[in-house]
Amino acid sequence: MEFLNTLFDEAIRFLGVRHIFEILQSGNYSSLLTYDGLRAAIGPLIPFLLILEIIRAAIFKRFKASEYKVVFLLYIFNRFASRFISIAAVAFCIGLFEKYAIVKTSFTWYWFIYGYIIWEFSHFIYHYFGHKVRAFWCLHSTHHALEHMNLSVTYAHFILEAPYADVIRTSICIIMGVNPPLLFLIMFIDGTWGAFIHIGENILKDGRLGFLNKIILTPSHHRVHHARNPLYMDTNFCNLLNIWDKVFKTYQDEKTEIKPEYGITREMNSHNFLDVYFGEIVCLAKDVYRAPGLKNKLLYIIMPPGWSHTGDHKTAKLTKQHYIKEVEQQKRQPMSDPALQPLTELSA
């Protein structure tokens, strides 16, 4: 009976309906107008869409259990491990840096806009380093290792990534004067949107969302971010506002003729929990062990994925440069050769 109760509690926690039940039982619907009430109302949205996504895939015979198996194991493992690892990164950073804030903000619409721009900057910084520093990539790669895109991917994370992300994002926001209540609201909105942009084609075939594709980062942009196509690698690091991707020239629209290929570039088994969760850590450990000298060992930890002490680098930046150079060379070739046509079309 205790096992069944635990299972029920975990299901309720996953669905995010506990607070809704409490509101229905109390009859105090005015609480929906509060921050906690808003979270309670929106919390079940992503789990509901995920279940709908699975049902729709099953109806149209596109359901693949292998796409959800590893994510399920990741979710269970993280829930179990989190019982023993409790890191209050956000509270710690607020207490540490709030007294050093360069400005004082209040809970108003104009400071909300300011706060959201700062939040996106902090998210960009965390996310950029997650791709450009190999030690951080070991934490972030779990989220990219799956070779499909649907709402279940939002639950695929290495357990230590959240504290690392929160330390960077919270520290920057607090130092820049985003007060805690405003920060928590922004984190909630951004977290909800950050989950939604993983929605798969079973629910949303075209992730561009019409005119919104020109204003914000849509599921289409995030599909690009998760792709391993050379043109798409290491792009669209922001979550909702695309301002910092455009500032730092990492913005990339999805091209109709280049379908995203999901996953990471190293050879791996995306259906193996251990490879998805620990594979990059094992690869880094092997490289560090084999590297000659302390300097090279350290460089493997802090340089981008694909860096090699031999000079045979296979970083995302070089891969993209080689791809663009090849496309440009093909564009200069005579169009009479039919074999060159497909590559030329991709560069249009």
Automatic annotation (TrEMBL):
UniProt keyword list: Lipid metabolism, Membrane, Oxidoreductase, Transmembrane, Transmembrane helix
Domain (Fatty acid hydroxylase): residue spans on this chain: 113-250
Lineage: superkingdom: Bacteria
Signal peptide, first to last residue: none
Membrane-related topology note: Multi-pass membrane protein
Organism of origin: Danxiaibacter flavus
The protein's name: Sterol desaturase family protein
Pfam families according to UniProt: FA_hydroxylase (PF04116)
Region ranges (Disordered): 328-348
Annotated transmembrane regions: 38-59, 71-97, 109-129
Lineage: Bacteria, Pseudomonadati, Bacteroidota, Chitinophagia, Chitinophagales
Cellular compartments annotated: Endomembrane system
